[in-house]
Amino acid sequence: MQALVLLLWTGALLGHGSCQSIASSPEEGSPAPDGTGPPLEEDDPFFKVPVNKLAAAVSNFGYDLYRQRSAESPTANVLLSPLSVATALSALSLGAEQRTESLIQRALYYDLISNPDIHGTYKELLAAVTAPQKNLKSASRIIFERKLRIKSSFVAPLEKAYGTRPRVLSGNPRLDLQELNGWVQAQMKGKVARSAREVPSDISIFLLGVAYFKGQWVTKFDSRKTSLQDFHLDEERTVRVPMMSDPKATLRYGLDSDLNCKIAQLPLTGSMSIIFFLPLRPTQNLTLIEESLTSEFIHDIDRELKTIQAALSIPRLKLSFEGEVTKALQEIKLQPLFESPDFSKITGKPIKLTHVEHRAGFEWNEDGAATSPGPEVQPARLAFSLDYHLNQPFIFVLRDSDTGALLFVGKILDPRGT
């Protein structure tokens, strides 16, 4: 690779635009040359680890799901923890015959990886991302229509790989809702609110994915510097929100000239990080950025952003989501699961997917592990001052650095709530 390219990173191999690092000022940089070559996962040692490669596949499903949800809600915030939904689908595939199993595996991008023990590797992935230091709670459940007789040959591998047992509804809506809420509360340690939504009456197969995350920054924010500041909903409307500030924050940074956005990464405890995509204009359509999101693109960003010091401000955030993602799944290759799938490994009765629900909670505040960056973090010296203010609509990605797994993704049009 040419020396010039070391100052720049490019997504050309992945069909993305080029991103300039701030090793030189944005005006001085130029895009790296277009290139063709093997996909990143073929030549990067990171993706040769089975659990990392599986994480990349599942995360690409997550970005597909996010794009669909965002398209359905163009004027609203979007918050998803796609891993919990992917886990429910992957677990359900244990009960599918070949045609239906292949359908699920294509949606989860399993067909692009060679792994004879997908479910065993998935167990490793879940253990890695839900380790206590990660601060992530994620759980999934498969719920079946009342009085369904389930084969033990399905239950045993489900419990072994995914640590969960299926639930058969009682037929009493009040008791079923109470039991479901109790399960969510137990899994999420009370961090996700109870649902008042009635359990649907026409359930055949009901998938439920729940997740909660409260991040802790590696370097905490000084709460005395948090103040009400303007957040620009667009070029004409602003709202006042609590903004956390650090005039000399250490972060990793890059400018993507094709996506027309500034990218920053902040580390969290537990070997995790959040990557922010901030358009250069408040009215800029976020779709182009969303279309660029893949596991490989995010991994490339993680490798190539440069550590710098900047004036930083971030809205204090506490968001939640509860609702169905059924329609979104139908739009991303999975419509046949809702029509005439073959789940004869589960039961002798014809059954089909009818409902997929997601509940999620996500927050960050000033909390951090240390008051200043460690001595090993040395930002690059800049010939110009730099600021990064998340005071307009942005996209964020919460990523596990150990496996590369996408844990949460959000589109924040208004930080006051979903």
Automatic annotation (TrEMBL):
Which SUPFAM superfamilies would you find in this protein's record?
A: Serpins
Q: Where in the cell is it found?
A: Secreted
Annotated region described as Disordered, given as residue ranges: 20-43
- Entry keyword annotation includes rRNA-binding: no
Top-rank lineage group of the source organism = Eukaryota
Alphabetical list of InterPro entries matching this protein:
PEDF_serpin_dom (IPR033832), Serpin_CS (IPR023795), Serpin_dom (IPR023796), Serpin_fam (IPR000215), Serpin_sf (IPR036186), Serpin_sf_1 (IPR042178), Serpin_sf_2 (IPR042185)
**GO cellular component terms, semicolon-separated:** extracellular space
- Do you know which Gene3D superfamilies this protein is assigned to? Alpha-1-antitrypsin, domain 1, Antithrombin, subunit I, domain 2
Gene Ontology process terms (BP): epithelial cell proliferation involved in prostate gland development; negative regulation of angiogenesis; negative regulation of epithelial cell proliferation involved in prostate gland development; positive regulation of neurogenesis
Which molecular-function annotations from GO does this UniProt entry contain?
Answer: serine-type endopeptidase inhibitor activity
Serpin domain boundaries: 63-415
Q: Which keywords belong to this entry?
A: Glycoprotein, Secreted, Signal
Range of residues in the leader sequence:
1-19
Secreted among the record's keywords?
yes
Family, according to the entry, reads as follows:
Belongs to the serpin family.
What protein am I looking at?
A: Serpin family F member 1
